[in-house]
Amino acid sequence: KMGAMMGGSVGLIIGFIFGVTNILRFGAGPNGPLRMLGQYMLGSAATFGFFMSIGTTIRTESSPSITEAFARSQQRPIIIPRQYLKRQQDRKRSE
Questions:
Q1: Neighbours of 37 (CB within 10 A)
Q2: Which residue, 10, 17, 2, is CA-closest to 48?
Q3: pLDDT tens per residue across all 95 residues of the chain
Q4: Residue 7 near residue 53, CB atoms below 8 Å
Q5: Domain of life, per the record (predicted)?
Q6: d(Cα 19, Cα 36) in Å, to the nearest integer?
Q7: The pTM is what?
Q8: Per-residue burial over 39-77, b = 16 or more CB atoms within 10 Å of its CB, e = otherwise
């Protein structure tokens, strides 16, 4: 829903700019300026909204196994203090 709303909003603005530009350059035609501008705006909003909703769905949807694997990869290993001290002592002995 969010992608469709964002795409629709952007589409309305782009349609307004593109529509006004074309009406000023080429004239409104037989439908009149407001109807022609509305057609530009609605067509652009529908197109942008459709593609943004698909893109948002693809980007945010994930399977539970992928989410779990990502969470496991982000975990940092826990080092117990004794093990850490033992590693330091072993390193000092090897030097």
A1: 19
A2: 10
A3: 888 888 899 999 999 999 999 999 988 888 899 999 999 999 999 999 999 888 887 777 667 777 777 777 776 666 556 666 677 777 777 76
A4: yes
A5: Eukaryota
A6: 7
A7: 0.58
A8: ebbeebbbebbeebbeebeeeeeeeeeeeeeeeeeeeee
